[in-house]
Amino acid sequence: MKITGAKVFVGGPGKNYVTLKILTDQGVYGLGDATLNNRETLPAAYLRDYIIPNLIGMDPRNSEDIWQFLYRGAYFRRGPVAMAAFGAVDMALWDIKGKLAGLPVYQLLGGKSREGAMVYAHATGSDLADLMDSIAHYVAQGYKAVRVQCGIPGMPSASYAVPERKGEGEGKNYITDYAGIRPKIETWDTGRYMRYMPGALMEIRDHFGPDLHILHDVHHRLLPREAAEFAKAVEPVGLYWLEDPTPAEDQEALRLIRQHSTTPIAIGEVFNSIWECNKLIENELIDFIRVAVTYAGGITHARRIVDLAALHHVRTGFHGAPSHSPISMAAQAHLNAWAPNFGIQEYLVLGTPQCDALFPSEHRLASGMMHVSDAPGLGVDFVEREAARYDYTPGSHPVVRLEDGTLWNY
Ligand SMILES: [Mg+2]
């Protein structure tokens, strides 16, 4: 069996999804997602210019050898651009493998460990009352877990993932990236955040009671000592997790947080290999690993991370921002169905009619639980005539500065 060709598409409804379609001499094709948010043309070029010419003639069933060929063969290993491109190839090969076997991918991984995988939604508000409305909206739909992000009184501009105007975030996939190459500048004030947010989280707990899983994302904004103080301050809230309390380049910083708090810590959405998280996992400095199957090198590599995490009581919480297409979300749904150490899945409803028309699938969400498709392979298709409607639109994440102009972490 041989790979005979492959195509890359960039575009989609509201997002520049990078979709890879690998074709074979037996008529079976596989789909992968290489979307790297706001840098989408780069993995697309990596695929077109370097990877696809090498794939032609290879046996698509040898997904492990092809992964090693791409990774070791690159010489300049890792990095989100390369790993997203490798991830797309790997997803497509698992899709082909499942279709050849007539089995959903989760069966190739070891079968189902659960009937449904808990997901969390994003609630956001320009102020606390606005956020409460947004949380109530998701609770009413049956969600068991909600990430909560709130405007901070006196903050010079909206804080992370928070709309500037009341009601803008409710029931929508509110995200803070912008069209255009030049980013919007946001202003951050750590003191105001540290003084306000623990109390706001406690009000949310009091209002919604003990059963709701409450998650909060600091989005890399705090220094290690501040993060330790914050994690300690929010202990009475009983968070499901505190996400990215500090940037994870300095991984020893997580030890300081651990020494001062039992609040569960989730990190890893910007990691792109096991080599960014193996020490965090082995030293049990985190509770949830947040890699994405896209830029952590596909199912083959993400599975290695999941297995290492399982040895150290670290559970999964795969990234699920709206920049992940239904193809990588499906790949994660199969891993979530199997992983013995599954925790939770970030999930923003992609289900617009346009998105469903482009990526038809039987994966379904009900009462805050994701139910994986039983169709062979990944269980998502890609309609090329729909894809022809969309173009690439440049976009950017905001850039954050302190009030005096000092550049900070988005
Ligand atoms: Mg996050």
Write the topology of this structure.
Elements (H helix, E strand, L loop, with lengths): L2 E8 L7 E7 L4 E5 L7 H15 L7 H11 L6 H22 L3 H5 L7 E9 L2 H13 L4 E6 L27 E2 L5 E4 L1 H19 L4 E5 L6 H10 L7 E3 L9 H8 L4 E3 L10 H5 L5 E2 L8 H13 L4 E2 L9 H13 L6 E2 L6 H6 L5 E3 L2 E3 L12 H4 L7 E2 L2 E4 L4 E2 L2
Parallel strand pairs: 4-5, 4-13, 5-8, 7-17, 8-9, 9-10, 10-11, 11-12
Antiparallel strand pairs: 1-2, 2-3, 4-15, 6-16, 14-15, 17-18
The site of magnesium ion has 5 residues, from loops.
GO molecular function, one term: mannonate dehydratase activity
Protein name: D-mannonate dehydratase
InterPro entries: D-mannonate_dehydratase-like, DgoD-like, Enolase-like_C_sf, Enolase-like_N, Enolase_C-like, Mandel_Rmase/mucon_lact_enz_CS, Mandelate_racemase_C, Mandelate_racemase_N_dom
Task: Describe the fold and architecture.
The chain is α/β, with parallel strands linked by helices. It folds into 2 domains: 102 residues, 2-Layer Sandwich (Enolase-like, domain 1), CATH 3.30.390.10; 300 residues, TIM Barrel (Alpha-Beta Barrel), CATH 3.20.20. The chain has 13 helices and 18 strands. The strands form 4 sheets. Strands 4, 5, 8, 9, 10, 11, 12, 13, 14 and 15 form a 10-stranded mixed beta sheet that branches. Strands 1-2-3 form a 3-stranded antiparallel beta sheet. Helix 2 runs antiparallel to helix 3 and helix 3 crosses helix 10. The protein is globular. The structure holds magnesium ion. Magnesium ion binds next to loops.
